[in-house]
Amino acid sequence: MALLVVPACLLVLALLIGPMILMFRISLNRFSPTQLMMQALSPDNYIKAATDPYYQQIILATLGIALLCTLLTLILAFPAAYWLGRMESRWKSLVVIATLFPLLVGNVVRSAGWMALFARDGLLNTVLMKLGVVSAPLEIMYTTKAVIIGIIAVVLPYMILTLSAVIESIPRDLEYAAANLGASGARVFWRVILPLSGPGVAAGSILVFVLCMNTYATAVLLGGPRFKMMAPAVYDQFVRGNNWPMGAALAFMLLAVTMAFTVFGSVAFARKYRAG
Hints:
It is a multi-pass membrane protein. Keywords: Cell membrane, Membrane, Transmembrane, Transmembrane helix, Transport. InterPro entries: MetI-like, MetI-like_sf. The protein is mostly helical. 74% of the residues lie in helices and 2% in strands. Strands 1-2 form a two-stranded antiparallel ribbon. It is globular. 25% of the residues are buried.
């Protein structure tokens, strides 16, 4: 039976591990404005990425936005996930499909929709000005707020579906028993629903965090050229600057930071869950 997984393992090695090894080798090369990539075995690109204030600011900004978007997505997704997980209607499958439907649309198309909504002469400003709510157009485009809204819109279905699957497995009798013992709705949520939905919270948060850390189209289209996150910075090094060694080093820095926080969160949650 073990031999049956050999073809899949070889395919993973060929399509994933192999290119990553090649990119790591490229990250150790040096860059010259005249000769472009020069063969070397130097950690200079990693040292520069870790010590240069410019790249430090990009890494911290990416990490902060990813954590904030993960938290806000969790807060927004929980009510919808609970409603979906407890739904017993025959229309539940249609609701699940409606939740999945945004995932069928590419991030670029969705970001273009937000651009049409947030622009100075976009739908939102037009409506607000006609209603007399504002006297001048709001500056929403090319701001951090626009990027956060766009990212949350992309990752929200993942969190809802992950949480609803776990909430659906929690017996309703536990809620009824807590209510019969005098617990309020808020207390039932904090003492019963939230602890038992912990695996879904962890899985959904990790998935959303990884997606937020690696967002590209949303950051570029809604944040503008001055807004910097790690994925656009990697693209700029590869395509605009032709600095493949630095681009590869930044890509591995992004991978390392994402993996570090993912592993830390997984271990912290596992210890807390076992202790509970």
